[in-house]
Amino acid sequence: MSRHTPSMSVMVAAARKAARGLQRDFGEVENLQVSLKGPANFVTAADKKAEKVLFEELSKGRPGYGFLMEEGGEIEGADKTHRWIIDPLDGTTNFLHGIPVFAISIALERDGQLVAGLVYNPVTDEMFIAEKGQGAFLNDRRIRVAARRELGQAVVATGIPHLGRPEHPKFMAELGLVMNEVAGVRRMGSAALDLAYVAAGRFDAYWETNLAAWDIAAGIVLVREAGGFVSDMNGRDTMLATGGIVAGNEILSRKLGDLLKKAGKPA
Ligand code: 2AM
Ligand code: CA
After folding, report:
1. Which residues are bridge partners to 74 per DSSP?
2. Given Cys at both, which of 17, 31, 192, 216 links 105, Cβ 3.0 to 4.6 Å?
3. Threshold 0.70, pTM exceeds
């Protein structure tokens, strides 16, 4: 069983409340696809509603904490030591297409350090939570990163830069290197869930670049507390600032990071 702090109880309650709205709206997506009336706007509304619920619930539970949110941006709190980092709907494209792979992501930062993370997929009812020093859990069962040490046996997840991004050639170079070395590559479309799956040992490793802090903050805590290792593309600790991330067990994530570095260099 997971023992968790009152702050985590606040996070879990907020996520479950926001999830009820998301699930209702997800059920509506299919109906909307037959009308041509922009399901994209509908999804944006669902996203904003979920963020509002999270903001209200977390503010009620922990008055004064600051916020960094995908929709609302930075909101300074009276309490300068605490900040929530929130993505109310990670995997927006999946949501829009009726693919049940999306999540609410909530992280708590204390004095600039990530101390708690929650990633919740309302459709599968999988609640991934972790607090610094307490381990990582999936629906109250302890989870650990996978133990595979060889790239040749590893299933590795990634994210493909979306339409209009300038880093497509770089990504193709990375993918070219990785797919030649690993057992399989997967692409789910939710960075928060990718990291949660690494924490649960489903994916052996994961990398992606150009992400926002709210995509990965909670997942970073999950992977670390599951005994894994997280770095940016240069093996450093500046994932939130650079938006690049490599995760897995310590050995495999280092091997993957070393391999990816070759993507920038001539063969
Ligand atoms: P989102 O679903 O909240 O937008 C997929 O590779 C990851 O990239 C997701 O976590 C996704 O988060 C994130 N991402 C950030 N900006 C994006 C965009 N404009 N289009 C698609 N995915 C984006
Ligand atoms: Ca996101």
Report:
1. 68
2. 192
3. yes
Rounded Cα–Cα distance for residues 148 and 162 (Å): 30
In a shared domain, residues 131 and 217:
no
Last residue of a domain, one of 143, 174, 200: 143
Q: How many CB atoms lie within 10 A of CB 12?
A: 16
154 CB-near residues (< 8 Å, 6+ apart): 146, 148, 182, 183, 204, 205, 248, 252, 256
Residues 91 and 132 in one domain: yes
Q: How many domains does the chain have?
A: 2
From the CA of 161, give the closest atom in ligand 1. 6
Ligand 1 contacts CB of residue 87 (under 6 A)? yes
Query: DSSP character for 228?
Result: -
Ligand 1 contact via 90 beta carbon (within 6 Å) = yes
Task: Show Cβ contacts of residue 124 under 8 Å, excluding neighbours closer than 6 positions.
Answer: 100
215 contacts: CB under 8 Å, gap ≥ 6: 87, 90, 105, 191, 192
Asked whether 191 lines ligand 1 (CB < 6 A), one says yes
Q: Domain of 213?
A: 151-263
Ligand (nearest to CA of 192): 1
